[in-house]
Design a protein that fits this description.
The protein is an all-alpha fold. It contains 8 helices and no strands.
Length: 260
């Protein structure tokens, strides 16, 4: 579990609920019609804007933000160094006999093992990188759009509540409670936007940047394998993608992958 995401959500909700308790009754901040307007309207507008498959993918990605730790580029550096060492000891064909968890890495190594030229491998990996950027942009954009829709529907709910309140001006006792209910929808919209949708979009963007770094390491590592570079030189080259204070020293090769 990603600790930062979990702590952020719990801290944000805890502070808001705590402030409500200090100033009144939590039940006063629950209004089912307001929740229906804001949440239902936001989802409806999102479905109008994007394809259903993209919206489903976006919610799956949101779950991923909270359920998975961020990958470490150092791991990809170690993987590429190990593959470079295997190719030098056993030949390029040995790369096709290794089991890979990463689909793109499997594709790159199979291309290398099949004797593909550097230009073809370079073009293939570049296309994969650009395609990944596009997919991730759509998912991030869904949450950015939801962050803009939620406050708008909150204001819409407030206007609906004000209309209903103005129709009861002949009864002054109902004005205060009616105004409170009208303002709740604005509260719901701002809460969803600032505590959930925008942070999720930002978190997904951060994950995309890390994944792009891993793909760049994979890309340069594949070219290094083709050029039959020394693993020591490969480490110095690929570790440049990792901040100096976070770089992991190279480990002895030969243990990470076994060919079959």
């Amino acid at each position: 579990m990603d600790a930062a995401s979990l702590v952020g959500v719990l801290l944000g909700l805890g502070l808001i609920i705590g402030a409500i308790f200090l100033g009144g009754d939590l039940s006063h901040f629950f209004n089912l019609p307001g929740i229906m307007i804001v949440l239902g309207g936001t989802i409806a507008a999102t479905l109008i804007t994007f394809q259903l498959k993209d919206v489903i993918a976006a919610f799956r990605a949101a779950i991923f933000v909270f359920s998975e730790k961020k990958s470490d580029p150092n791991d990809m550096v170690e993987t590429m160094i190990e593959l470079c060492s295997i190719s030098r000891r056993q030949g390029l064909i040995a790369l096709s006999r290794i089991e890979y968890e990463n689909d793109l890495l499997r594709k790159a190594c199979n291309l290398i093992a099949d004797g593909s030229k550097e230009e073809m491998i370079r073009d293939t990996l570049n296309i994969e990188i650009e395609s990944m950027k596009q997919r991730h942009f759509i998912i991030q954009d869904i949450f950015r759009k939801m962050a803009s829709y939620a406050p708008s529907f909150g204001m819409m709910g407030t206007l609906i509540g004000l209309v209903q309140m103005l129709r009861q001006l002949n009864n002054p006792d109902t004005i205060g409670p009616a105004m409170a209910v009208a303002l709740l929808t604005t509260f719901y919209g701002m809460l969803l936007s600032t505590l959930f949708f925008l942070p999720i979009a930002g978190k997904l963007k951060d994950r995309t940047l890390v994944e792009l770094t891993n793909l760049e390491i994979m890309f340069e590592g594949a070219i290094s394998i083709l050029e039959d570079n020394n693993p020591v030189f490969v480490y110095e080259k690929l570790s440049s993608y990792v901040p100096a204070k976070r770089r992991r020293p190279p480990r002895p090769t030969g243990a990470a992958y076994q060919t079959g």
